[in-house]
From TrEMBL:
Belongs to the cytochrome P450 family. It comes from the Bacteria. It comes from Nonomuraea antimicrobica. Its cofactor is heme. Residues 305-330 are annotated as: Disordered. This is Cytochrome P450. Gene3D superfamilies: Cytochrome P450. CDD domains: Cyp158A-like (cd11031). Residues 318-330 have a biased composition (Basic and acidic residues). InterPro entries: Cyt_P450 (IPR001128), Cyt_P450_B (IPR002397), Cyt_P450_CS (IPR017972), Cyt_P450_sf (IPR036396). Pfam families: p450 (PF00067). Keywords: Heme, Iron, Metal-binding, Monooxygenase, Oxidoreductase.
Amino acid sequence: MPDITPDYPFDREAALQPPPEWADLQARCTVAHVRLPSGDTARLLTRYDDVRTVLTDPRFRRGGPDAARVSTTRDGGIFARGSAGTDSMRGEGHLRWRRLLTRAFTVKKMETWRPRVQRMADELVDDLLKAGSPADLSARLALPLPVRVICALVGAPSRDQDLFAHWSQVMLTLTRYGQDEVERAYREFDAYVSDLVTAKRAEPGDDLLSELTQISDSHDGRLSHDELIATVRALLLAGHETTSNMIAIMVATLLAERERWQAVIDDPALIPGAVEEVLRLDTTLSVVGFPRVAAEDTSLSGSAVPSGATVIPCRPAANRDPRRFDDPERFDPRRANAAQHLTFGAGPHYCLGQPLARLELQVALGTLTRRLPALDLRDGVDGLRLRTGLLSGGLENVWVTW
């Protein structure tokens, strides 16, 4: 028989719309075999309960060298790699790492950054207005705002943002870069962060990295040098790639249907809810997701999953599951359970930086709707294009007018 295993990620007709296969699989095939860009196969999950189970159940562990390879590089991509820092942050080591870091990422602590983030956003919009319409929102706001924030947070100079952009893209390759380029990016990034960690240990400042070099508890002691490198790498990747892309996606999603944008202008109290709905409805950012490996024979929605099998929990599909969200395709900033989305994950690997990401999205949306109420997509919804070849998807340059 011919091989009928479909290639994943699925193609789509419109940038902001989900591929039709997600809804089809939710209805008829809860655990579907798919072929990844590497050529390896995995099991794709699309239902909310199954995805949440895999994210929270210890029977499913984070992907490692024995997981299906995702990327076309020899190492299989960032999820398959290990290092001195990340290897010590698995299992009990991961619990220790989170315990040490959680205090630095509380909602209350991140809220103290809101005035500073607001000043950065206003400065960037000032520059946007001076440059005039039209403008590439991705380059003028969506990228530089999170980069400035994360650089200030870890005490790195913002002038190095182009370096972060390059390293991040190469390290998150799906099909775009080769193994030699990936290895070079890791070496350069780790050397940069190692020097930064050493400097902060010697002369702590008022930034988060300085705090992390000193943070400890009576049982576990401080984070090691390698653990700090892995931590800062994760912060810079998430702060640069994920939040930058999400700001552009948020603006495009709201402008795609003008009444969404106008509703926030008319009632700024809707901003937090609008942000949650964008996070729930986005289909572009998580291209493959975080693979998990079954540690024992188990089943999901009645389908067998053998020990050693790689499963791909598709969070964007789960966020549109009608079993969890009423009328899931509808954008509703007043949706009561919108924050139950799985965009930031769930369980022991729930995103530590989500309070900061939410804050930045809220500030960006509030600033734009207040200062640029006439903002519009220069090329319309049909002009939006997906980024390809990277594990962090999102949109290509989002051009706007006002």
